Structure formats: structure tokens, C-alpha cells
Amino acid sequence: MGITWFGARFRRSQRTLRDYFLGGRNTPWWAIAFSIVSAETSTLTVIGTPALAFRGNFGFLQVVLGYLFARIVISTLFLPHYFRGELFTAYELMQRRFGQRLRRLTAGLFLLLRSLAEGVRVFAISIVVSIILSLARRSWSSWH
User: Fold this and answer.
1) Are the beta carbons of 103 and 94 closer than 8 angstroms?
2) Are the beta carbons of 43 and 125 closer than 8 angstroms?
3) What phi and psi values does residue 111 have, to the nearest 5 degrees?
4) What pTM was computed for the model?
5) Distance of CA 88 to the CA centre of its chain
6) Which DSSP state fits 42?
7) How far apart are alpha carbons 120 and 95 in whole angstroms?
8) Which long-range contacts (CB under 8 A, 24 or more apart) does 83-88 make?
9) CB 44 within 8 A of CB 124
């Protein structure tokens, strides 16, 4: 219900495609930062990171440093193109720079890889739900 309310609240301010993709260019930095973090955080992050750290494996910190490095590169190389060219998506930049075929390839690869990643995430959360339901069933059985 909260997500629906949140979306409905911001929908009123979006009148055009530019407003939808670029936020009318008046979105505060903290909202963009939360959006990026929420897009990068998945079930696997929430479940796996504490387990890895508990076992002494801090290799996931490399990912965090990689995200930081990538944000700096994106901010310096790609964002200026968005502001100069009124681009709505990265695919428009790909098309302008490298042509329609590469834009289609990158969009297709993105969709394929996101689908595979979401499948892994759904599988991971199904393991957690299975464990919870198994524990609940055992509790229920011991009460009756």
C-alpha cells in the first residue's frame, strides 16, 4: 500500500515523457541516491552479505568499491551527454554514437541478463520462504 501511495503521489507531477525519464530535472540528489541504492540492492544482497561477512569473507567490499568507481565514471562520462542532448535513456546515447544495431543489441542483452538475474533472485527468496514455511509447519505440528 505504501509503494502504491508513493507512486500515485509522484505520478501527479509527471505530465510528459521528459518528466517521467528525467524527473523534470528537479529531483533532489538524495532521492536519486536512494533510487540507485534500491535498484542495486536485492534479496541476494540482504541474505548473502551478512552470511559472507560472518564467515570472514569480505570480498563483497570489492563490489561496493566497484559501484563507487562506476558512479564516478558514469557521472563524468555519461551524464554530461544526457544534459546536453536531452537524452531519456542510455540506449538513445548508444544509438546516436554507435547506431541502431548496437542499441538493439545492448537493449536485448540488458533484457536477457536482467531476466536471468531476476530468476536467480526469485529462486533465492523461494529458499528463504521455504525455510520459513518449514519452520512454521514444524511449530504448528508441535502445538497440535
Assistant:
1) yes
2) yes
3) -65, -40
4) 0.59
5) 17
6) -
7) 30
8) 86/18, 88/17, 88/18, 88/21, 88/22
9) yes
Q: What is the dihedral of CA 13, 19, 21, 26, to 10 degrees?
A: -80
For 3-32, write each residue's pLDDT tens digit. 788 777 776 667 776 777 666 667 776 777
- Residue 77 burial (CB < 10 Å; 0-12/13-18/19+)? exposed
Q: What is the mean pLDDT of residues 109-133?
A: 89
DSSP 3-state of 16: coil
Give, to the nearest 10 degrees, the angle between helix 60-73 and helix 43-54. 130
Backbone angles phi, psi at 87, to 5 degrees: -80, 145
Position 108, amino acid: G
45 pLDDT more than 70: yes
Assigned C-alpha cell, 119: 530468476
